[in-house]
Amino acid sequence: MAEVLCVGDLLIDFVPTVTGTGLIDAAAFRKAPGGAAANVAVGLARLGVRSAFMGMVGDDPFGHLLADTLRAEGVDTSPLRFTAQARTALAFVSLRADGEREFLFYRHPSADMLFGPADVDTAAVEAASVLHFDSISLASENPRAACLFAADRALAAGRMVSYDVNLRLPLWSDAATAAAGIREGLRKAHVVKLSDDELEFLTGSREPAAVRSTLWHERLRLVAVTRGAAGSTWLTPTAQGDVPSVGVTAVDTTGAGDGFMAGLLAGLLREPDALADPARLDRLCRFANIVGALTTTERGAIPALPTRASVEALLAA
Ligand code: ADP
């Protein structure tokens, strides 16, 4: 049985073979299996946590390639659905020379957008200790209903719910709808991760204290604010701590947040009592920081996600 069930998007990113090339100028692309929730599932598996993935792909070569990729990583794909009604989600992604990321999504609609409450494997939700989801799913009607339904089932079964704010503004009709949708996701969760950019989007402030003054609710046990190379800040109902990251040579930040999320959940599963102890929370975030940092040292998300051994080697250094 999986310890963490990740629900959300599983798609192929097409990335220009030459970095710094815009989507229009790119002469060739390479396939990069990904999707935030899928990256977290793989990140957990590499850290030795039993993970499962729930979502929907097309019954087409890309869908099967994605399922095979997750299985090869040891992720349980039994809750993954295949549909003949739509094609697997695809995205064209480029990191332009000016450092801006460009996205173009195939969504007419893609299979992930058809994933609805009837497709939720409730037995898998109730069997896992943690349900993890993010706001990419909340941007479209069916997966939003599916995720909120799955979260309610997990809560009713007494499971932990984890949520990554993971704002992708172009997926939403407008900023106000995105902010309202994200707050709905937040309300379901015990554990939340967001970046300082997302914090500013939601609250107007980049200060982690803004989490407490404007986003806090009774169910929350742990919030982690990520700050890129500067590390992260954890907040519990009664305490807060800043944890610096480690120095690495970053070549591609894709998936750093997903790696961090996997590290945070892996740490929490190993040490559930850490929530009551600032020193252990510092260590937990340091572990997650290292997972995020190592994810930036190679191109792509899935190829770069580190193993537990490489994280522990840096932790001990
Ligand atoms: P996101 O992908 O959500 O924007 P961040 O870029 O904040 O997330 O990265 C997540 C975490 O990964 C950070 O909190 C930090 O711990 C680690 N990290 C990211 N980039 C670097 C970097 N260049 N050097 C060291 N650590 C990093």
From TrEMBL:
Entries under SUPFAM superfamilies matching the protein: Ribokinase-like
Pfam families attached to this UniProt entry: PfkB (PF00294)
Superkingdom of this protein's organism: Bacteria
Cross-referenced InterPro entries: Carboh/pur_kinase_PfkB_CS (IPR002173), PfkB_Carbo_kinase (IPR050306), PfkB_dom (IPR011611), Ribokinase-like (IPR029056)
GO molecular function: kinase activity
Sequence ranges assigned to domain Carbohydrate kinase PfkB in this UniProt record: 1-307
UniProt entry keywords in alphabetical sequence: ATP-binding, Kinase, Nucleotide-binding, Transferase
Family note: Belongs to the carbohydrate kinase PfkB family.
Protein's name according to its UniProt entry: PfkB family carbohydrate kinase
Species assigned in the record: Benzoatithermus flavus
